[in-house]
Amino acid sequence: MGISKEEVIKQLLKRTKYYSLFLVLNPNVPYIVCDPETLNDQVHVFAKEKEAKAFCEEAKTRKDMVYVKEIISREITRKDLNRKEKFFIFSLTMGPKDTDNKQNAPAANFYETLHGVGVNAIVWHDGEETCEIELSDFFNPDFSKLPENVRPLINQSLQISAIYYLEEARRNNNIQQNEELQSLSEELTANIKKSEYFVLIRKGEVKDGKQKILPWLITRQMQNSKTGEVVKQNCLAACSDTRELNWMMRLLKLDQNKDAGFLKIPFAQMAGMIQGPIPMCILNPMGINLTIDQNMARALTGQRVMQVVPQNKNGQSGAAGKKVNVILEDQNTDDGQE
């Protein structure tokens, strides 16, 4: 008799450590597999590192660029939930009690990530035993009763379509369009156009008694794939969900800057900001890491389907190139940004 779903849930809630796979060029993005029979969007989780590494090597034979990440549980207190720079999601099963006592919340951010990107199933591996469970069986946050102004923004369709596109595009090293890639591109561009986004902003100068609001730009190192030259580009940073927004606010320390903030806007309005001295927008810099340049923004707002080219971590298109660190810097003077 194999392991039961109830036992798997207990393992996921109580274990202090287990393993899963993430994308090499998007190290905060989980490796997702669509089951051909059930069409479930699955993430595989392993009790033992050895098993995870074996699954990783198997994925690499399919040209999937993945690596094994250790998932560690930690304790969270009620005080954590009141900290503005953090964003935790708990289901009723995992939810902290109304007391200040610590309650073990295994890998809460991992489950939050899976939920946010649209994963609906976990496949648990422990030796020869495997079992698939629905994520909603033990992690199913419901924000419908929250006021709209505090309800988290979650774009699951956009996130998962981008992840599948990234995975397929990098299997085709030169971004050669095939039938599958074309279908994924069309789905992704449709989701990009219909979604809402957070964009980072800052206060500009006051003119005629009116406060100017300017985009908060990040400077990104981009490498020319032909010449190897590294240049800096000022980019608009856009976030498709609340988790990514909090990530960026903490990274750039904007949560400590009284002149910084954000707007929630539709894609058409965001695309209008990608012009003049702003050559491109980086969508979810810490996650799916998609580049939308001026030409692409015009094409998408003009209702034409255009291939979205993923950038790897050194700014090159496609899957080629070594992984290097991306340096995010502020570039926020008023010069040229009116």
In short:
The protein has 338 residues and is an alpha+beta fold. The chain has nine helices and 16 strands.
Q: Please, could you describe this protein's structure?
A:
With about 350 residues, the chain is α+β, with helices and mostly antiparallel strands. The chain folds into two domains: about 5-135, no CATH class; about 155-330, no CATH class. About 25% of the residues lie in helices and about 30% in strands. The chain is built from nine helices and 16 strands. Strands 9, 10, 11, 12, 13, 14, 15 and 16 form an eight-stranded mixed beta sheet that branches. Strands 1, 2, 3, 4, 7 and 8 form a six-stranded mixed beta sheet that branches. About 35% of the residues are buried. Residues about 75-105, about 305-330 and about 335-338 have low confidence and may be disordered.
Structural class: alpha+beta
The quaternary state of the protein chains shown equals single chain
For the record, the count of structural domains works out to: 2
* Uncertain regions spanning at least 5 consecutive residues: 76-106, 303-331, 333-338
Q: Helical amount among residues, as a percent range?
A: 25-40%
Put simply, the count of helices is 9
Cα shape: globular
SSE series: HEEEHEEHEHEEHHEEEEHEHEEHE
State mean pLDDT (0 to 100 scale). Answer: 77
Q: How many distinct beta strands?
A: 16
Main sheet makeup:
8 strands, mixed
Q: Hey, roughly how much beta strand do the residues contain?
A: 25-35%
How far do the termini sit from each other?
68 Å
- Our Rg estimate from Cα atoms comes to 21 Å
